[in-house]
Amino acid sequence: MWSRTFGKDDQFCDGITRRRMLSAGATRLFGGLTLPMLLQLQAEAATKTQAKAKSCIFLMLEGGPSHIDMWDLKPEAPSEIRGPFQPVSTVVPGTQISQLLPMCSQVVDKFTILRSHSHKDNAHQTGRHWVLTGYPPAFADGQAKGIPFNELYPSIGSIISRELGPGGDVPPYIEMPNALGPGGPGFYGAKYAPFTIDNDPVQPDFKVRDLDIPGTVSSDRFARRQQLLSSAESLGAAAGATGRAETLSSYYQQAIDLVTSPQARKAFNIQAESPEMRERYGHTSIGQCALLSRRLVEAGCRFIGIDHGSWDTHFDNFTSHEKALVPPTDRAFSALITDLDERGLLDETLVIMMGEMGRTPRINKDAGRDHWSQCQTVIMAGGGIKRGVVIGASDETASLPITQPYGIQDLLKTIFHLMGVDANRVYHTPLGRPVPIVSGGHRIEEALA
After folding, report:
1. pLDDT band, very low/low/confident/very high, at 38 (cuts 50, 70, 90)
2. pLDDT band of 335, cuts 50, 70, 90
3. pLDDT of 46 over the 60 cut
4. CA-to-CA separations, 147 to 195, 250, 430, in angstroms, rounded
5. Are 129 and 113 in contact, with CB atoms under 8 Å apart?
6. 81-99 pLDDT, tens digit each
7. What residue segments make up the domains of the chain, in order of their start?
8. Which pLDDT belongs to residue 211?
9. How far apart are CA 353 and CA 380, in angstroms?
10. pLDDT, tens digit, for every residue of 370-384?
11. Are 349 and 82 in contact, with CB atoms under 8 Å apart?
12. 55-205+264-447: CATH superfamily
């Protein structure tokens, strides 16, 4: 497999054409290109799939939602397993979900329910590291240092940012209303870091900070500052600037691109939405983040990560799910996929909703459910995903899959396939270690439309 060297973004893309390859060989650009290497590159170019999704919205329900109380109820199980909620019918005959999700029950025909997702990391920080990078962390749970805490392996958002590049005037990778934790670029470097909106769009005075030029700075003065910065950066480049100087240069350019783009400011202006549309999504954090994510998709953002926490229900799981957690999520998710569909965007926008784990089938002494990664439900919609389908099944207590289990690498390979990213591509760390985008796993063919 042809691998790309860390820091060399313009070399040897998989999409290289046969004519371009032969031309490069003729001009001796490849130097020691051999026939086997040529045939390998041609094969990779020939098998590259057409992207079905232009963007991905990833709703991370941090802490672990209860699959057995939301998507995979077991009404025949003993009371210490099943809990108080009942399954209800949906618009898809034969498919039932929880009474807690009345809005989603009416749009089940627009998404897929994967009930056989399973992995072995039963902790929060380390589990999220697995989910967002596909690799194990180098620390124990609770021992992560700072945010982002994926120091080596890049996150899914950074990978998509690197592979696809910008799709408009907004950054290719945005996270909100908090950093995702292990959502950083890892060894890819600052160029592929997320733009974090560390301000909640549900706030009445929501505004993306530092997006406007200060009123005390005229356009001419701002242009002169840009020229001065450009000159300084040119001197740094001539001197071979690396490390912190190179990182700051990347941040400066991203900031300038945002400040000078009317399209970017328009995309972030959620106040431009009608009161009716904002109510449709719900005046909650997850609701307004979902609405803003739709605006960012329209502006060309490639990957939007929504961090929605407080799902770690060791205590009073049922009241938390019924009163605080599920209703705003039900409204936000159903509104998002319906809105995208009505605008003709769902078929090219992949939407994933999941936590780092599910919850234990057995209810604990505090009326809570504990960590359970061995079985969980993942919701998938749009961007080449089948509609109205349930994939997989769990046993009678929602403890383990009884059908083909799918893991994190399988899910990531499916996402990258739909986004037109070669998940087998290899990059090298600064120390020369080869790291595939995804190590192992297979596409979830059952989910593909």
Report:
1. very low
2. very high
3. no
4. 13, 19, 21
5. no
6. 999 999 999 999 999 999 9
7. 3-47, 55-205+264-447
8. 73
9. 7
10. 999 999 999 999 999
11. no
12. Alkaline Phosphatase, subunit A (3.40.720.10)
Which residue type, as a one-letter code, is found at position 424?
A: N
pLDDT given at position 252: 54
Cis peptide before 177 (omega within 30 of 0): yes
pLDDT reported for residue 183 = 98
- Tally of residues, the chain: 449
pLDDT in tens, 222-276: 556 556 655 655 655 555 555 555 555 555 566 666 766 888 889 999 999 999 9
Single out the residue of 414, 420, 421 nearest to residue 447, CA to CA: 414
CB neighbour list of residue 8: distance below 8 Å, 6 or more residues apart: none
**Six-digit token pair at 420?**
């037109």
b/e per residue 226-259 (b: at least 16 CB within 10 A): eeeeeeebeeeeeeeeeeeebeebeeeeeeeebb
Residue corresponding to tokens 């960012």? 296
Stretch 57-72: mean pLDDT, rounded?
98
C-alpha span between 224 and 356 (Å, rounded)? 48
